[in-house]
Amino acid sequence: MQSIPDLIKKKRDGEQLSDEEIRTFIRAVTDGTMQESQIGAMLMAIWQKGMLDAETSILTREMMSSGEVMSWPKEWAGLVVDKHSTGGVGDKVSLVLAPALAACGCKVPMISGRGLAHTGGTLDKLETIPGYNVQQPAAQILEMLDSVGCCIVGQTETLVPADRVLYALRDTTSTVDSLPLITGSIISKKGAESLSALVLDVKFGRAALYKDLESAKQLAQSLVNAGNSLGICTGAVLSCMDATIGRCVGNSLEVIESVETLKGRGPDDLMELVTTLGGVLLKMTGLVSDLSEGRAKISDAVIGGAALTKFQTMLEKQGVAKETARSLCSAHTDYHSVLRKSQHQRELKTPAEGVIKDVDGLVLAQVLHQLGAGRSKAGEPVNHSVGAELLVSLGQRVGKGESWLRLHYEDPAPTPDQMNRLQSALTLGEPDDTPDPQTQFSLVRELLLPL
Ligand code: IUR
After folding, report:
1. For residue range 44-57, what is the model confidence (pLDDT) as tens digits?
2. Which residues are catalytic?
């Protein structure tokens, strides 16, 4: 067998690694026999020389097999589905989509992550609900899928241990943004969920990992190839991540907007994403015959209240007191009787009359991060109540001095410089501008569906 330095040299020199060599690499990472310096060198060689699709598929499979792989009852064959998003601002899709899919007959073992840098994480959002426990044993996950159809939980210690080692070292060796390494990391974890179908929400735009549509498409294709190579029916949706998804950013506020959406009062852009991603999954499972039927079925589950009922039951199963879950999900609730409200709010005003042309989601997210809504290092606490509500819509005509953003903050209070930055996120067009509704308000740009 080749030594680890030989494997590093081979990739460093731009050669293709064999299946056996990739297996040796991942085993040595998992069993701790590969030194951190060697792992770092291999990561950098992969970052620089890349991998062929065939290598990426084997890397993904070996990473998946480095730990436990879940198994499901035979009767669920074809029905076990999940979604992964490459990360956004105000991205609360999972909170609505998981229960909507459950209401349509799917089994959704959603394993989610925490926020890092300017992007939010589903687990942080759900933890704003008192009692919600993201850490669930395998037996409870099985029970929840059986009785409710969905759960939203954190990564367990036993799933894909190789990724924990590689991800931490990618962070310290500047090798995060490598197509094969991102692909292996994301898809191995989905493979360990033993999914029937997977949809990827691959974002592009100023608040996304990849800024332009073309590079996001390359990532989408790489993820789709790796998913399909594991036998998961995999599709991707390319969606724009320039502004915010919906009107709320920040953990507590995003839970409120998600529950409002489950009550049929959600913003159009969020509903577009939920129905498209869900529609693609329903089509891939064969529960519907085409995408438009899938979209309609998801929309009915949300608007008709079936998804809200699933959400309420999921909360109870994951540790939320019955009374709290019922209060959150009742038609006319005071959300802040359940979710903590920030101590302070301040409204920002429009500097002139005009049309709302643009809101820079990245700037909003960066300032909110500085005010405590996000974390810079894994494990740091976040302030759940810090956030912002957009009070206007793109394309809306406004007068001078109208409130366009409500900032929710605690300690630290925003500095004058941070207030200026927030204000700079707004771009006003001339009062007689007429924006094209199709290009301005639709987030979904392209679909990459299996044949
Ligand atoms: N999310 C993951 O699970 N893995 C990655 O490499 C990235 C995001 I970037």
Report:
1. 999 999 999 999 99
2. 84, 163, 170, 185, 189
Q: How many residues does the chain have?
A: 451
Among 116, 155, 186, which residue has the most ligand 1 atoms within 8 Å of its CB, making it the best to mutate? 186
Q: Is residue 55 part of a domain?
A: no
Ligand 1 centre to CA of 185 (Å) is 6
With a cut of 60, say whether residue 439 has pLDDT above it: no
Reported as a single tens digit per residue, the pLDDT across 211-263 is 999 999 999 999 999 999 999 999 999 999 999 999 999 999 999 999 999 99
Q: How many domains does the chain have?
A: 3
Q: Does the pLDDT at position 314 exceed 70? A: yes
Preceding omega of 73 cis (within 30 degrees of 0): no
Instruction: Give me Rg for the CA atoms of the chain.
Output: 22
Q: Output the CA 182–ligand 1 centroid distance in Å.
A: 5
d(CA 344, CA 364): 17
Atom 9 in ligand 1: residue holding the nearest Cα? 182
Taking the C-alpha atoms of residue 310 and residue 145, their distance in angstroms, rounded to an integer, is 11
* Whether 199 and 257 share a structural domain: yes
> Does residue 321 sit in the same domain as residue 367?
no
pLDDT tier for residue 383 given thresholds of 50, 70 and 90: very high
Strand partners, 199: 83, 235
